[in-house]
Amino acid sequence: MKKIFNKKILYLTINGVLEPLGESQISNYINKLSKDYKFYLISFEKNINFKSKKYFLQKKNFNQNNIDWHPLKYYSFKHPLQYLNIAKLYVYMIYLIIFKNVKIIHVRSLIPGIFINFLRYILKFNFIYDLRGFWVDEKIDRLKYKNNFIMKLCNRIDKKLILNSKFNIFLTKESKNIVNVKFPLTKKKNYIITTASSEELFNHYKVRNKSTLVNFLYLGTTYGAYNFNSIIDLLKNLFNINYKFTFTIYTKDNKEHIKALLLKNRVLKDNIQIFDIDYKNIHKVIKNFDFLIFSCFENDSIKASMPTKIGESLLSGVPILCNDFNDDISQLINNDKVGIIIDFKDYDIKTLTYKINNYLNDDSHKVRCRLIGEKYFSLSNAVKNLDEIYNSLCKKIYQ
Q1: Strand, helix or coil for residue 15
Q2: How many CB atoms lie within 10 A of CB 232?
Q3: In whole numbers, what is the pLDDT of the chain averaged over residues?
Q4: How many whole angstroms separate alpha carbon 303 and alpha carbon 173?
Q5: Residue 252 three-state SS
Q6: β-pair partners for 129
Q7: What are the structural domains of the chain?
Q8: According to the model, what pLDDT value does residue 211 have?
């Protein structure tokens, strides 16, 4: 017999829950919250995933947790079938609001926010705006979109969503503070729930073999928000001083393109390896490394970002080596001593390796990283904070 819920939430996301990001930052959350809330989940999934084993496993998992999942096939907005998808989306949302008495929509990012922005003029419902970054700035900074009429219209809708939501959720303190200054009346409804990972899945209980080699890990994409050329320059400098290290890349990016880029810069050596990896296996590999390293482009959009791999690394007891891309990361690393901040444009390589070696000679950083990971990036804390937002809103609406 199915449990009867009086707390109903429509979770609307453009991100697919069959992708690593959706799996870690959407599925993990609502699965844990589904014992207290009835979820209707709409996501946009890549066509190739609908025939995958992962699709059927996820469907079974959601059914067991009494989550009604309504996946739509993702197409480019230039594709005519995407507009048929949008029509289906509106029909389903209207059905849920009118016939299923769903009065709360958790909208994840601006694009699905645009859909509900038009709908809110017709039907009564409350919504939580989960920004997940500054979408317009991201497209201009990372994908080089022109700041044209469409982008300006998106900015206006973004403003309306921030002002009319019941709650706004941010990934960083810096992005929340920017919105607090820009829209002072929203202060009381602005919350931070940063990226989170399972503290049970990611752990630091791994004995590393003492070695003269330093094992660097690069995890995730090499383009978009990330300045991979800075990493290549770092590798060159390490080779120039004959520093002993390994560099391993786990990514779903085009491997041949990465190899060609490394070869062009004369850094494709035997100690550099590139692998593909599924999200379910990431926790098995992170703990084997000495440092997670990456470099982000410094711009307006990055102020609102907090890559998931940061929490995954810290929970695994692995310190981080990266640039000062926003206030949150600089405060985290400098104040809590869980890594090294590097200015990739101007640094002394010998001073940097001295700092790296200091970490390797003192195993206390593993426990320190783990504790900070639990404090700021644990899934249990994120779920607790989201539950408080849901419960606060449900009490006003359903009781």
Answers
A1: coil
A2: 18
A3: 93
A4: 9
A5: coil
A6: 107, 168
A7: 8-196+378-398 (3.40.50.2000), 214-377 (3.40.50.2000)
A8: 65
Q: What is the pLDDT of residue 3?
A: 54
Nearest to 298 by CA among 336, 261, 327: 327
Q: Looking at the predicted structure, is the pLDDT value of residue 2 above 70?
A: no
> What pLDDT is stored for residue 1 in this prediction?
40
CB 292 within 8 A of CB 247: no
**What's the chain look like in SS3?**
CCCCCCCEEEEEECCCCCCHHHHHHHHHHHHHHCCCCEEEEEEEECHHHHHCHHHHHHHHHHHHCCCEEEEEECCCCCCHHHHHHHHHHHHHHHHHHHHCCCCEEEEECHHHHHHHHHHCCCCCCEEEEECCCCHHHHHHHHCCCCCCHHHHHHHHHHHHHHHHCCEEEECCHHHHHHHHHHCHHHHHHEEECCCCECCCCCCCCCCCCCCCCEEEEEECCCCCCECHHHHHHHHHHHHHCCCCEEEEEECCCCHHHHHHHHHHCCCCCCCEEEECCCHHHHHHHHCCCCEEECCECCCCHHHHCCCHHHHHHHHCCCCEEECCCCHHHHHHHHHHCCEEECCCCCCCHHHHHHHHHHHHCCCHHHHHHHHHHHHHHEHHHHHHHHHHHHHHHHHHHHC
Give percent of the chain with pLDDT exceeding 90: 86
* This prediction's pTM: 0.94
**Structure-block tokens of residue 395:** 């009490």
Residues sharing a CB contact under 8 Å with residue 120, sequence separation 6 or more, in sequence order: 127, 164
Per-residue pLDDT of 351-374, as tens digits, reads: 999 999 999 888 899 999 999 999
| Residues 377-399, mean pLDDT to the nearest whole number | 93
Q: Write the pLDDT tens digit of every residue in 121-139.
A: 999 999 999 999 999 999 9
